[in-house]
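User: Show me a protein chain along with its predicted structure.
Assistant: Here is one chain, sequence first, then structure tokens.
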Amino acid sequence: MTAFTLGSLRRRLRAERRALSRAERQAASAALARRLATLPAFQRARRIAAYWPADGEIDPLPALRRAAAAGKACYLPVLCPQRDGHLHFAAWNPQAPLRRNRFGIVEPAVAPRHWLAPRMLDLVLVPLVGFDGAGNRLGMGGGFYDRSFAFLGQRRWRRPRLVGVAFDLQRVDRLPRRAWDVPLDAVASERGCYRFRMF
């Protein structure tokens, strides 16, 4: 698949998810939260990270609110100025103060000394534009998640588990896997959970 083809696929999938009605989005996000709550990895996790939805992404915040209500520590990504293109994670709760980063994406207004490194998490709900049946993920193209979780390619690291979350319409037949891509452990949607490795 060429870069042009991937770009075209990315544009199509983003348009399709943005075309969903508000009611369809809310129903899908509620169904996703219920589905995630049944996963053993979600139930066992003490530190769970998600993202603030943008550009028509499925909303993981209902799932994160469930986690917070169950006493789990919850986090959202923050851009790391010391390592450009990398993410750290800041504590989040429904009353947490928020700010917009340089891309206009919402993140917690938390001082860097309180940020958590990616390897300290148990479970990460990862945004995506598309996914396939082998656990390959098509993101927005910035590489933030691949760079931040590259350490998972080393055998000794088994945490955190990476679960992509998406609308079911974002599944495609096949995506290329490049050397730097970090594969997902599973993808959860409003319709089901696709597991790709021991989970």
